[in-house]
Amino acid sequence: MNWRARLLALDGLMPGMDESGALAWTTLADAPEGCDLVFLGLDEGKACFAAVPEAGDIAPRLANPALWQAMASLRPDDLAIYGGARSLVDWHARHRFCAQCGGPTTLAKGGWQRDCGNCGAQHFPRTDPVTIMLVEHNDRLLLGRGKGWPEGRFSALAGFVEPGESLEEAVAREVLEESGVVVGEVRYIASQPWPFPSQLMIGCHATATSDAITMDETELAEIGWFSRSEVAAALVGEGPFTAPPAQAIAHHLLTWWIEK
User: Fold this and answer.
1) Which residues contact 254 (CB under 8 A, 6 or more apart)?
2) SS3 annotation, 30-77
3) Residue 57 CB coordination number (10 Å)
């Protein structure tokens, strides 16, 4: 065993934490027998690994309150490490067979690739681009509450980028589909990896041409326009809605809008 190597403590896909609330690390001797190990990188000269669990996670992230609680308690640097590790080992657990021929695949390149021993196909961890956008009209923001979200929880509209779309086209399409609102100018603000399981959130700002709403009831439970004072109050926990958590890019986009 290499004393310079560390193993990220995971319970399935949930993070293990030490007494201080930081990510817990063990040694390679604690890895389950016969499991695949993914190389995460180097930290102060020590090689860091994570073990691939027996099964991945197919449940919606909102269906796991314990995951949200753990994410909220981790420091930003630990959250970044855990998020990347979770995304990678989850992908391995759910891609043990080749999408081309159905044959078994094996881990390669330290866990950043899987190879099919039957047809030779190479498979790589995927990242799904998602636009998340602040839609503005006359100094108000369009925010929605998704199906199954807690009462009062509102956030920016969001949706996956489809094949062949630009980011601007994806923003315009998603806003139109979910709210019936037409947008004009779209600009990029910031991005955030959101590896639950494998998304890259691309934050944008869009200007609406009108404020008329036709809500998509299959996607949203509520939608509405909120003033600058209402958004500012929500960010400090004083209503009229519950803002996204601080670790989400939606929270930072709302803060950016208030401060700009």
Assistant:
1) 134, 141, 156, 231, 234, 235, 243, 244
2) HCCCCCCEEEEEEECCEEEEEECCCCCCCCCHHHCHHHHHHHHHCCHH
3) 19
Spell 145-163 as b/e; 16+ CB within 10 A means b.
Answer: bbeebeeebbbbbbbebee
Q: Which residues of 59-75 are buried (b: 16+ CB within 10 A; e: fewer)?
A: eeeeebeebeebbeebe
Q: What is the pTM of this model?
A: 0.88
With beta carbons less than 8 A apart as the criterion, state whether 89 and 50 touch.
yes
- Sole residue written with tokens 């989850």: 90
Distance from the Cα of residue 5 to its chain's centroid = 28
- Separation CA 158–CA 131 (nearest Å): 5
Query: What is the longest distance spanned by two Cα atoms in the chain?
Result: 64
Residue with tokens 């003033």: 227
Q: Which domains does the chain have, with CATH numbers?
A: 5-93 (no CATH), 95-125 (no CATH), 128-259 (3.90.79.10)
Contacts 24+ apart (CB under 8 A), 232-236: 232/258, 234/154
Neighbour-count burial of 214, counting CB atoms closer than 10 A to its CB (0-12 exposed, 13-18 middle, 19+ buried) = exposed
* 165-224: pLDDT as tens digits: 999 999 999 999 999 999 999 999 999 998 878 899 999 999 999 999 999 999 999 999
* CB atoms near residue 125 (< 10 Å): 18
